[in-house]
Amino acid sequence: MEQFEILGADPAALAAFGQIAQPLLDWYQRAARDLPWRRDVSPYRTWVSEIMLQQTRVEAVRAYFERFTKALPTVASLAKIPEPELMKLWEGLGYYSRARNLQKAAKIIVEEYCGALPASYASLLGLPGFGEYTAGAVASIAFGIPKPAVDGNVLRVASRLLASFADTSSPAVKAAYRNLIESILPESAPGAFNQSLMELGALVCLPNTSPRCEACPVRALCAARENGCWAGLPVKAAKKERRVEQRTIAIIAADEKTLLFRREKGLLHGMFEPLNLEGHLSKPEIEAQITALGGKPEKILPLGTASHIFTHIHWQMKGFYIKTSAFKADGGHWADKTALAEKYAVPSAFRAFFERAEGLYKT
Length: 363
Ligand code: SF4
Prior knowledge:
β1 (243-254) and β2 form a beta hairpin. By secondary structure, the chain is an alpha+beta fold. The longest helix has 17 residues, at 97-113. Strands 1, 2, 3, 4, 5, 6 and 7 form a seven-stranded mixed beta sheet that branches. α10 crosses α13 (190-203). 45% of the residues lie in helices and 15% in strands. Iron/sulfur cluster binds next to α11 and α14. Residues 157, 160-161, 204-205, 211-213, 216, 218-219, 222, 224-225, 230 line the site of iron/sulfur cluster.
């Protein structure tokens, strides 16, 4: 038990934690949600679903998952799809490096593992985009390997069960939780057990001040419930503030087509976007920018403001709709409505401006 000292849990709470497996498995059998990736389990489908579920809600992932696995049913098909088409399939899910890492890993799986995900935790962990959580989830759910899968939901549930005020954003504390969960994993059902903990966090032991303790299958084993201290758990050190960037977005339209540019590096690289300039520009300033690009603005209309939050950056955007006659812009692509919908992957950060510009193309 010394190795769990860092969690600062009471020995009685640690002992009770050792008894959660069976009630959780029984509950999971009754209460698990019917989700597409649980219906037809394969290592590939588990992997894709786990990557999509990082940073994205289950309800949002359902439709993306169905579309993605229909278009790319195998590791081999994922490995060879051209990147722009991959980005288009991922459009709207955000955190696009996830899609790129999926493809990088798929290429390695094809080359080194004959197209089948390796049935080994260590080998999974060596693939791009696989951290300890994803490797544990795929290993346990798809291959029955007894490894823990500890995400934010699990940390919340575990810290409440133990009434532990250890900082869950600390790597050493996370490692202690992984070891603790590994020590109680039922060998016969590691995947179901990991999923039961995640499901409990998603459906019952909800964040903030709203856990549904009366419906919890492990309430009799929960130290936070006994002590009434669940509201302050889990403890997470405050995150670093995001950098705020002001941007000006110009939807430039000619002959019902929109001018798009490919982002060549950094944030959202490989995606297409309208003209995206640093700072909040005035109407004369944006007019000068379009003229410098080679366009002759006929009409410039404000599209208001919008904001988008990335992991480390917060974009505060100001938008314009600019009607011009067609011109050749360096690195620009003119996209009609069909190409916008089917060909170019455009981040959802710009959605508000496209929606506001929708009725203006024919004016
Ligand atoms: Fe969470 Fe309440 Fe269950 Fe404890 S009893 S694990 S606080 S839902």
